[in-house]
Amino acid sequence: MFDLIVRQCRLKDSKEEQDIACKDGRIIEVAPSLDATAVKEISANGCLVTPPFIDSHFHMDATLTYGRPRVNQSGTLLEGIALWGELKPHLDFADIQRRARLLCRWAVAKGNLAIRAHIDICEPTLLAVQALLEVREEMRPYLDIQLVAFPQDGYYRYPQAEALLTKALDLGVDVVGGIPHFERTMAEGTRSVKALCEIAAERGLLVDMHCDETDDPHSCHIETLAFETQRLGMQGRVCGSHLTSMHSMDNYYAGKLMALIEEAEVSAVANPLINITIQGRMETYPKRRGLTRVKEMLEQGINVAFGHDCVLDPWYSFGSHDMLEVAHMGLHVGQMTGIDEARSMFDAVTVNAARALQLEDYGLAPGCNADMVILQAADPIEAIRIRANRLFVIRRGEVVASTPEVSSEVRIMGGQSTVAFRNSEINSDST
Length: 431
Ligand code: FE2
Known about the structure:
The protein is an alpha/beta fold. It has two domains: about 1-50 and about 365-400, Urease, subunit C, domain 1 (Roll); about 55-355, Alpha-Beta Barrel (TIM Barrel), CATH 3.20.20.140. It contains 15 helices and 18 strands. The protein has helices spanning about 75-85, 95-110, 125-140, 160-170, 185-205, 220-230, 245-250, 250-265, 270-280, 295-300, 325-335, 340-350, 350-355, 380-385, 425-430, and strands at about 1-10, 20-25, 25-30, 40-45, 50, 55-60, 110-120, 145-150, 175, 205-210, 240, 265-270, 305, 370-375, 390-395, 400, 410, 415-420. The strands form four sheets. Strands 6-7-8-9-10-11-12-13 form an eight-stranded parallel beta sheet. A four-stranded mixed beta sheet has the order 3-2-1-4, with no helix packed on it. A four-stranded antiparallel beta sheet has the order 5-14-15-16, with no helix packed on it. The longest helix has 18 residues, at about 185-205. The structure holds fe (ii) ion. Fe (ii) ion binds near residues 57, 59, 210 and 309.
């Protein structure tokens, strides 16, 4: 007897519908029409079942602070950082946790069951680090939170950042962060990448740096990050986040860089909602898009994942932590409209993100964690197009969120009909 069987699942890479049987929090069997029973059965009714969405880049300490003490009017990265600087001295332990918990509830409702959260360590009491270490533990049954020690004001530029980063790691923060393009000089940025990678190598930790989040084509700290990754034997354990300067670089140099990134097995984490909003703010026309070279990186064989980055915070006044919205924006800004390209945008918020975060037992194969999302869509492209409703979100074999099927009753031309914007309506519609 299984704990749970999800029947009639349409999987991304399988034409035939499958049943997924789970026990003790794991997937045990995946096969068509399983002849077995379970304590609980759910029918996916031929809808797409996917491993959970993953947000590979987020700021949980700042989220849901919209309007405090004011709204970012210019929309620039620098006003966002200044605004965060105004807010930081007034942060409150209970308030950080309350906002983080609400965001986690939003995440679970949207089927996002892993979040990599960069936490600003440039604050003498490490209040946010301590608050979010507790949230990470209390949320563990429901979603995985990886915390990154992120020196927002610069590892060398902020006077106590070196000591505070060490302290944050000692407290149990998972990943080493950085922000080389915000250091005082290019040379200081380079020095910070080297030092931070060495700390991670020594402690056996992963690395994820905000890297070259600028329109300046001369910002190329990703070159050093790839080099240090290789030098220290950290292949597969390092992410370069944002990499927006690569949008503006000379094609020849960008080509060389992409080969180095691929060789070092560094994952590229783009944040389409934020990149399209924040980059290109100094421009008149034409305006650059600012998103890194997603299409070319994928062609190069680089692991590209997407993050939401911000929801209602000093940098971004929008969002509901919907990773399909992120994939949708990435598809448009990156002009990823071919079939394989569009499917790769779904991968950027699922399997590629799992690889970037080095998540274990992720997927829908037997032996994997019994974590999955049933979408009100038939396939990944339709899911992105309609930012599909999450019918069921399952964690370790338990339903942690559900939403009734969403459709609209339309009353026109003397009749009443139902629409849900599905592809299946196109051929079956008789109107
Ligand atoms: Fe960020």
